[in-house]
Design a protein that fits this description.
Layout (H helix, E strand, L loop, with lengths): L1 H12 L6 H11 L1 H5 L1 H23 L3 H21 L1 H6 L1 H17 L3 H33 L4 H6 L10 H11 L11
Helix pairs in contact: 1-5, 2-4, 4-5, 5-7, 7-8, 7-10, 8-10
Keywords: Signal
């Protein structure tokens, strides 16, 4: 019950969030589609603010209860996104994968390996969707301009990245396996 009250207090705090001014610039970097579509921007505003508020909460409050409140806040925000704006989550699949991966890490910090595993598995679906979009864009560019080179990509306005989010890919791989090579264990 304490977790629920703390999460609710954090959720209400985002209504007047000091981070409101950085949401759009962050989303411009993380999901350009969100800034071009008002519905997607509105759907992603909550999870983006929740992630910032949760991190700010942890910066000033320590201990198990604070981590649990922050995790509850983030989970509530993701549930709202997936429940009411699933289409917006699929418009920004790499961002959804990043949020799910971070939430899984927080779950592990609270010794919730089952929740973490489920979040990672769900995030993998979004990661593969993002990879599919990246590959489609690469092939569109290749068909239109030939095989992309560093020079040709630099000359393009709004050029895609050279590689598909290597940090996200490696972090997902690390979350799925331990240093000994076994899968994320469920106790």
């Amino acid at each position: 019950m304490v977790l629920l009250r703390s999460a609710w207090a954090l959720l209400l705090a985002t209504a007047q969030s000091p981070y409101e001014g950085v949401v759009v610039p962050l989303l411009e970097e993380e999901c350009l589609v969100a800034t071009k579509d008002p519905g997607t921007l509105a759907a992603w505003r909550g999870p983006t603010l929740a992630s910032l508020e949760a991190r700010a909460h942890l910066a000033g409050s320590f201990g198990l209860e604070s981590r649990a409140a922050a995790l509850g806040h983030w989970l509530t925000s993701l549930l709202q996104l997936f429940d009411t704006h699933l289409d917006a989550a699929f418009r920004c699949p790499a961002l959804a994968a990043q949020h799910l991966q971070s939430t899984a890490e927080w779950s592990l910090s609270l010794d919730h390996p089952r929740r973490a595993r489920i979040l990672i598995q769900l995030g993998n679906a979004f990661k593969f969707q993002a990879l599919k979009e990246f590959a489609s864009l690469y092939h569109e560019i290749k068909d239109a301009f030939g095989t992309p080179t560093d020079a040709s990509l630099e000359a393009m306005p709004n050029a895609p990245p050279k590689r598909f989010l290597p940090r996200l890919h490696i972090q997902y791989h690390l979350c799925r396996s331990s240093p000994r090579g076994s899968s994320l264990s469920i106790v």
